[in-house]
Design brief:
Growth Hormone, Chain: A; globular; 377 residues; two-stranded antiparallel sheet; mainly alpha
Amino acid sequence: MGTSWGGTATLLAIPAGRMSDRFGRKPILIASGVLIAIAALLYLVSSSVVQVILVRIIEGASAAFFWPPVEAFATEVSDPTKAGRAMGITTAAYGFGWGSGSMVGGSVVGTLGYHPAFASYLGLSLVSVLVAVFFLREPRGQHVSTTFRSEDSKTSSRRPFSRPLLLAYFLGGTYTFGLGVMLTLFSVFANDLGIAVFWIGTLFGIFWVGRIAGFLVGGRLSDKYGRKPIAITAVVITALAFLLVATAAHIEPLWEAVLLLGSGIGASFPVGIALISDSVPQSLRGYAMGIFETCCEAGFMAAGTIGGFLAEFYSPRAPYLLAAIVSLSSAGILMLMLPRAKGWKGGVDTGIPLEQERQSEAVWPRTSPDRGPCMTP
């Protein structure tokens, strides 16, 4: 069932992102909401494993229609020099919703059963569709995408594969490899250490607290100090945290390890999105975000497959050592190959190439009182 979700999301992320470039972010996000509402409704009537697998496929399609356009949208409705902060806020909201939804859903299932939980799922999905229909507005800058398309017709097909973008995709794949190891294998590893189920759940809660903090802090710091140093710092922290997990013999070292792990993994995501935003015009941004999400899904699925094999046939600690090696290798590659940003304002590295900064200023005049719905002040 997990493969049906991940495989569908992987296959559809790039087409969904490209469609959002062509038809706008709003209709694709509405389609995502409709798909998730259909999935919630089918959960209420499903009675076999095959039917549940079908529902998971629909949920995977909804995720593919959600993440690339919402990532592009978040960077387009904010000040271009604060793309990291905007994506950090967006993903922190996702993390809060995921964590609180899991707690509330578990409570509802425990007290009332599965049907009320899935009915709530359906209701919230319908609310999200209505919010998107009536309150979501495309940024004014979205209308200049045709200008980008005509001016850059000779080079646009190459833009999503420049060196900074390839490294952003690489960062997405490597950080989600670590995320996949944590989410798919950690509970079994902790159980083997003799840790009670309650404390395993508490460790996951601390991981999510660290991840939400990483979302917020990583994106903001990358706006202030540049994408490269924050990306490298995030993956180094992730590697050190995995080493702590791999060498832990009891629960005490895991408190600090999972907090650091969540912070490092959380900080990597908005920095990767901001790197893409810095380098890609709006007319191709959904496509580039789709490639990024495809790399993320590939990394996540590889973690479950390779990590599970290592844990089964070598050692339960082996997946965490491998994740540490992957993270350290990522840090080295980013240090050697990721170029420093070219845009500077007031002595601060904005992370935006000068040419795009001038284009962005034309799209988002900072003194204009009507800039569209901005996520950042």
